[in-house]
Write a structure and sequence with these properties.
binds adenosine-5'-triphosphate; 6-stranded mixed beta sheet; 27% strand; 4-stranded antiparallel beta sheet; alpha/beta; 8 helices; Rossmann fold; globular; binds magnesium ion
Length: 240
């Protein structure tokens, strides 16, 4: 494997909870190569979101090492972690964090402004991704004028518009009807083919699972099962 985009070794994560502590991750080793399409499954409370937060440099491990795109996160300060996120990662999390006073267009554009993308490219990319998630008619609406599924699609557009190296998603299709969910998955698969974007999802959605090339099962904060599909999703599609 060339340098993995994600490399975790002996990772533990403990949350203090009053006088107790919760051991959310208990010795996780995980390497993910560029261009993988990986699904993390496991029961509620098994540590999926905790793991995604570490991969997304939103939180730090209690012990063990976490390297994301070659950066060891342990000794980075907040500003450095924010730069790793900005330069490499697109987030599609359950709390969408859309900016309420901005329109759909502006919410998506904002991700590119943060990356200092020139204005001419910005407009083209923003319109294109909004079209791809099916929100062109709602481009000038604000989040509170949209349904839950539409808001989720804004969050997806915002995560993908910067063409990040890694996309982390926590139940990305939970609020979408099956057709919309599938069309967004096809869009992600194209990005995976064209840009070698790495996708790491926590989900129970069978449609997402059918796109995954690798399935990781986590239980009580440990990886229980790590299964690579024999054929890649794109090979399946091309009938190889
Ligand atoms: N900030 C926190 N403080 C204390 N405990 C926490 C915190 N976040 C998570 N936990 C605990 O850590 C464990 C793992 O939680 P996590 O959110 O990673 O589970 P999950 O697999 O994402 O579950 P779900 O499928 O319900 O989203 C749980 O026992 C949870 O209660
Ligand atoms: Mg979770």
């Amino acid at each position: 494997m060339s340098t993995p985009v994600v490399d975790l070794q002996a990772v533990h994560k403990t949350y203090p909870l009053g006088e107790y502590e919760v051991k959310a991750l208990r010795g996780v080793d995980l390497k993910i190569a560029e261009g993988e399409f990986t699904v993390i499954m496991g029961p509620s409370g098994s540590g999926k979101s905790t793991l995604l937060n570490l991969l997304g440099c939103i939180d730090l491990a209690s012990s063990g090492s976490v390297a994301v795109c070659g950066h060891d996160t342990a000794h980075k300060n907040e500003k450095e972690l924010a730069e790793i996120r900005r330069d490499n990662i697109g987030f599609i999390f359950q709390a969408f964090n859309l900016i309420p006073v901005l329109s759909v267009y502006e919410n998506v554009e904002y991700a590119l402004i943060l990356k200092k993308t020139p204005e001419a490219e910005r407009d083209e990319w923003v319109r294109q991704i909004i079209e791809q998630v099916g929100l062109t008619p709602h481009m000038h609406h604000r989040p509170n004028q949209l349904s839950g599924g539409q808001r989720q699609r804004v969050a997806i557009a915002r995560a993908l518009v910067t063409r990040p190296r890694i996309v982390l998603a926590d139940e990305p299709t939970a609020n979408l009807d099956s057709e919309t969910g599938k069309s967004i998955l096809r869009l992600m698969q194209q990005m995976n083919d064209i840009y070698k974007t790495t996708f790491i999802f926590a989900t129970h959605d069978p449609d997402v699972l059918s796109f995954a090339r690798r399935t990781i099962r986590i239980h009580d904060g440990k990886i229980e099962h790590d299964h690579a599909a024999k054929k890649t999703a794109s090979a399946r599609r091309k009938g190889k």
